[in-house]
Amino acid sequence: MNKDELVKVALCGGGKVAVLGASDKAHRPVSDVMAYLKAAGVVLFPINPRVEGKEILGLPCLGSLAQIDEAVDIVSIFLSSSMQEGLADQIKAMPGKPAVWFQPGAENPDLQTQLTEMGYLVVVGDCMKVAHRRNCTVAHDKTK
């Protein structure tokens, strides 16, 4: 699968996305992207140990990827590279083999290379919200 196929299947098709670095603060970019994707029908799993147990956009926030008990299509990273230690092992332990999407500002060349060498599809240099707007037909106004 390549990036274009991933967008069509997971974003346009209402796939499942784990969001690392989810926030309960509405002014953060991650909150805007999550609200957009949720309105577009994407199933979200917010992940942030600092707000574990709280709700974000009406969804329970989990403390780690290990708490997701089903396969997801994408792990979306909104964490700075300094917060990404051990992430390859956490992703490897997940059910299935999700694509890993580094949101702008979360780039980490070492981790990107490691994940690519492990056989993961890695997406860098594009925002999921922008990719959805560019590639998916949305039938309602909530995502504009």
TrEMBL record:
Q: Name all CoA-binding domain ranges.
A: 11-106
Checking InterPro entries in the record gives:
CoA-bd, NAD(P)-bd_dom_sf
PANTHER family registered for this protein in UniProt? COA-BINDING DOMAIN-CONTAINING PROTEIN (PTHR33303:SF2), CYTOPLASMIC PROTEIN-RELATED (PTHR33303)
**Protein known as:** CoA-binding domain-containing protein
Source species, please?
Dethiosulfovibrio salsuginis
